[in-house]
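Re: the request from the purification team.
They wanted to know what the chain is likely to look like in 3D before they choose a buffer screen. I agreed to run a prediction and write the result into the notebook, where they can find it.
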Amino acid sequence: MIIKVKVPENKMSASIILEKAGDDDKVTPKEIVDALNEAGVKFGIDYDVINRICQNPEFFVPLQVAVGKEPKNGEDGRIEFVNFEKEKESDKKNIDFREFPTHKRIIVRKGQKIATVYEPTEGEDGINVFGEKIAGKVGNKVDIKLGNNVELKDNSIYSKVDGILIVDLNENFIDVGEVLEIKGDVDYSIGNIDFPGEVVITGDVKPGFVVRAKKDIKVEGIIEAATVISLEGNIIVSGIKGRDKGIVKCSEDLNVRFAENANLEAKNLIFKDLLNNCNVKVSESIISENGRGVIVGGEYIAGVKIEAEEIGSEIGIPTRLEVGIPPHLLEERKLLHTQIMLDKQNAEKLMKIVKQYKLLKEKKVDIPNDKKQLFVKATTTLLNIKEQLEKNKKDWMKLRK
């Protein structure tokens, strides 16, 4: 029996071909293994297959009797983002459709973890039928492109600022923007906005919606019966139509071409054309930008000055102006006055109770213990109210100066 051993170029398998040398058509497992060893095949020999071949030999056809172990490549590196999923709106009993689209915007905070970067893993070595090692390849390293305001630290990506997360998964690009740009109107397709940076809106803010930002807000269109608030910045807007519902408020300057029937609060209000029937409170000044602005109807309170070409109307539309006292001090005065009046009323009621108690004691009436405790409590409360009343009166007089 002739046993030929065939090994392909990749050395990952070995086959035998049996050829009859005479009338003897038998072959033993030892003969096959010896032939393999003589050819250098040492690994992956399948002895079960060899036994079956010996029981039912086939001739002049290749019979695979050994297989190598293929190497395994390591896993590629990858990025795994933090799960930013909010509670599903469909799970809420009452849905505010102005809030519905906000899931499209992912807001991250300074120092917040955005994603984890996993390094590629080592490959697993293989071995061919000659017993030679075949090295497994290490996985490919993930190519990350970090944009603005993000940093990679200890295989994690963090935001360096408060802002909106911007991700391009095709390019593995990660960025946190400090400016939120809304191309178009703030309506049901956009939803309410609450952003820790700057907001730019190329359209209008539709009625009933809320835009709130930490920094500047710019609205190229109209604010219509909506609430727009900048906590630490300026607001620039083409026009405001408040319909007696709109509130526009900022800690710095409010710059507007015109405003109608709106509630406005700012450090300075700078307008170009018209303020019509507005309720305005500024800590410093209301100024017409070009000196030709008109103020008609409403109430205007400024801590420093009010400047306009025309104020009031010949047809008798009430226009009230107050200058010299910052609005927050006026508000304090009102609150103190209200508290003083309330304390006086309470003091009068408690005084009657205390007088009644003194009268009963003078008449030597036997007073139950629970009543005595009530009178004692009334006396203590009266003393506290009188003390607070005196303090509030002094504070109120200081604010009048």
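For the purification team: The first helix runs from residue 29 to 38.
Please add any questions underneath this entry.
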